[in-house]
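Data availability (excerpt). All sequences and predicted C-alpha coordinate strings are deposited with the supplementary files. A representative entry, DUF192 domain-containing protein, is shown inline so that the format can be inspected without opening the archive.
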Amino acid sequence: MHFDHINKYCTTFRLTLVTAALGLAACISNAAGPAQSQLPTLQIRVGQHDVKAELANTDLSRQIGLMNRKELGGNSGMLFVFKRSETQCMWMKNTLIDLDVAFADANGKILNIEQMKAGTTDIHCSSGNAKLALEMNHGWFSTRGIDAGEKLHVPEQVLETRE
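C-alpha coordinate line:
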Protein backbone atom coordinates (compact mmCIF):
# COMPACT_ATOMS: atom_id res chain seq x y z
CA MET A 1 0.00 0.00 0.00
CA HIS A 2 2.82 2.37 0.83
CA PHE A 3 4.36 2.00 -2.67
CA ASP A 4 1.01 2.73 -4.31
CA HIS A 5 0.93 6.17 -2.67
CA ILE A 6 4.50 6.87 -3.76
CA ASN A 7 3.73 5.87 -7.36
CA LYS A 8 0.58 8.02 -7.33
CA TYR A 9 2.48 11.09 -6.11
CA CYS A 10 5.39 10.38 -8.44
CA THR A 11 3.06 10.47 -11.46
CA THR A 12 1.50 13.74 -10.26
CA PHE A 13 4.95 15.21 -9.67
CA ARG A 14 6.12 14.21 -13.17
CA LEU A 15 3.01 15.75 -14.75
CA THR A 16 3.56 18.98 -12.80
CA LEU A 17 7.22 19.05 -13.84
CA VAL A 18 6.37 18.60 -17.54
CA THR A 19 3.70 21.32 -17.37
CA ALA A 20 6.14 23.73 -15.70
CA ALA A 21 8.81 22.98 -18.31
CA LEU A 22 6.38 23.67 -21.17
CA GLY A 23 5.31 26.93 -19.52
CA LEU A 24 8.94 27.99 -19.09
CA ALA A 25 9.70 27.19 -22.74
CA ALA A 26 6.77 29.36 -23.83
CA CYS A 27 8.03 32.26 -21.71
CA ILE A 28 11.55 31.96 -23.09
CA SER A 29 10.31 31.97 -26.70
CA ASN A 30 8.51 35.28 -26.09
CA ALA A 31 11.29 36.89 -24.02
CA ALA A 32 12.77 38.84 -26.95
CA GLY A 33 9.49 40.63 -27.52
CA PRO A 34 6.41 40.25 -29.67
CA ALA A 35 6.47 38.88 -33.17
CA GLN A 36 4.51 40.54 -35.93
CA SER A 37 1.26 38.82 -36.81
CA GLN A 38 0.41 38.29 -40.47
CA LEU A 39 0.19 41.67 -42.20
CA PRO A 40 -1.36 42.50 -45.55
CA THR A 41 1.12 42.60 -48.42
CA LEU A 42 1.16 44.70 -51.55
CA GLN A 43 3.26 45.10 -54.65
CA ILE A 44 5.09 48.41 -54.88
CA ARG A 45 7.89 49.70 -57.08
CA VAL A 46 11.10 51.39 -56.07
CA GLY A 47 12.29 53.07 -59.23
CA GLN A 48 12.00 50.20 -61.71
CA HIS A 49 12.25 47.40 -59.12
CA ASP A 50 9.26 45.41 -57.88
CA VAL A 51 8.97 44.80 -54.13
CA LYS A 52 6.56 42.68 -52.14
CA ALA A 53 5.96 44.78 -49.03
CA GLU A 54 4.19 43.99 -45.79
CA LEU A 55 2.06 46.96 -44.79
CA ALA A 56 2.66 48.45 -41.32
CA ASN A 57 0.01 51.17 -41.07
CA THR A 58 -1.23 50.85 -37.49
CA ASP A 59 0.43 51.94 -34.25
CA LEU A 60 1.04 48.33 -33.19
CA SER A 61 2.34 47.10 -36.55
CA ARG A 62 4.72 50.07 -36.78
CA GLN A 63 5.98 49.48 -33.23
CA ILE A 64 6.71 45.80 -33.83
CA GLY A 65 8.04 46.22 -37.38
CA LEU A 66 10.43 43.42 -38.33
CA MET A 67 11.35 42.51 -34.73
CA ASN A 68 12.30 38.90 -34.08
CA ARG A 69 12.42 37.97 -37.78
CA LYS A 70 15.30 35.71 -38.74
CA GLU A 71 15.14 36.48 -42.46
CA LEU A 72 13.49 38.61 -45.09
CA GLY A 73 12.93 37.53 -48.70
CA GLY A 74 15.23 38.94 -51.40
CA ASN A 75 12.72 41.42 -52.87
CA SER A 76 10.55 41.63 -49.77
CA GLY A 77 10.32 44.41 -47.24
CA MET A 78 8.08 46.30 -44.88
CA LEU A 79 6.37 49.56 -45.83
CA PHE A 80 5.65 51.84 -42.87
CA VAL A 81 2.91 54.41 -43.39
CA PHE A 82 2.92 57.10 -40.71
CA LYS A 83 -0.02 59.21 -39.51
CA ARG A 84 1.67 62.50 -40.34
CA SER A 85 4.43 63.75 -42.59
CA GLU A 86 7.14 64.74 -40.15
CA THR A 87 10.63 63.65 -39.10
CA GLN A 88 10.40 59.89 -38.50
CA CYS A 89 12.94 57.84 -36.56
CA MET A 90 13.59 54.12 -36.14
CA TRP A 91 15.84 51.79 -34.20
CA MET A 92 16.71 48.10 -34.36
CA LYS A 93 16.08 46.83 -30.83
CA ASN A 94 14.97 43.15 -30.98
CA THR A 95 15.58 43.11 -34.74
CA LEU A 96 17.71 40.12 -35.74
CA ILE A 97 18.74 41.08 -39.29
CA ASP A 98 20.62 44.08 -40.69
CA LEU A 99 18.30 46.35 -42.65
CA ASP A 100 18.36 49.50 -44.76
CA VAL A 101 15.50 51.98 -44.56
CA ALA A 102 14.43 54.49 -47.19
CA PHE A 103 12.44 57.40 -45.78
CA ALA A 104 10.10 59.02 -48.31
CA ASP A 105 7.73 61.99 -48.40
CA ALA A 106 3.98 61.78 -49.10
CA ASN A 107 4.70 61.82 -52.85
CA GLY A 108 7.00 58.81 -52.53
CA LYS A 109 10.24 60.74 -53.12
CA ILE A 110 13.05 59.12 -51.15
CA LEU A 111 14.57 61.66 -48.74
CA ASN A 112 17.42 59.51 -47.43
CA ILE A 113 18.48 55.90 -46.96
CA GLU A 114 19.96 54.71 -43.68
CA GLN A 115 21.84 51.50 -42.89
CA MET A 116 20.74 49.89 -39.64
CA LYS A 117 22.63 47.24 -37.67
CA ALA A 118 20.67 44.41 -36.04
CA GLY A 119 20.05 44.62 -32.31
CA THR A 120 21.28 48.18 -31.84
CA THR A 121 19.51 51.12 -30.24
CA ASP A 122 21.07 53.68 -32.59
CA ILE A 123 18.45 56.13 -33.82
CA HIS A 124 17.99 56.53 -37.61
CA CYS A 125 15.88 59.49 -38.73
CA SER A 126 14.49 60.91 -41.93
CA SER A 127 16.23 64.00 -43.30
CA GLY A 128 12.87 65.75 -43.75
CA ASN A 129 9.14 65.25 -43.40
CA ALA A 130 8.51 61.57 -44.16
CA LYS A 131 5.15 59.85 -44.59
CA LEU A 132 6.65 56.50 -45.65
CA ALA A 133 9.58 54.28 -44.79
CA LEU A 134 10.57 51.11 -46.61
CA GLU A 135 12.77 48.59 -44.79
CA MET A 136 14.69 46.13 -46.95
CA ASN A 137 17.60 43.74 -46.44
CA HIS A 138 20.95 45.43 -45.89
CA GLY A 139 22.47 46.48 -49.21
CA TRP A 140 19.27 46.13 -51.23
CA PHE A 141 19.10 49.82 -52.24
CA SER A 142 22.82 50.27 -52.94
CA THR A 143 23.14 47.14 -55.11
CA ARG A 144 20.34 48.51 -57.30
CA GLY A 145 21.77 52.03 -57.47
CA ILE A 146 18.80 53.53 -55.61
CA ASP A 147 19.55 56.82 -53.86
CA ALA A 148 17.73 59.82 -52.42
CA GLY A 149 15.51 61.41 -55.06
CA GLU A 150 14.28 58.07 -56.44
CA LYS A 151 10.58 57.34 -56.08
CA LEU A 152 8.52 54.78 -54.17
CA HIS A 153 5.44 53.98 -56.23
CA VAL A 154 2.64 53.02 -53.84
CA PRO A 155 -1.14 52.94 -54.34
CA GLU A 156 -2.83 56.18 -53.23
CA GLN A 157 -5.10 54.41 -50.72
CA VAL A 158 -2.00 53.08 -48.92
CA LEU A 159 -1.23 56.59 -47.68
CA GLU A 160 -4.18 56.35 -45.29
CA THR A 161 -3.23 55.03 -41.84
CA ARG A 162 -5.38 53.09 -39.41
CA GLU A 163 -5.39 53.29 -35.64
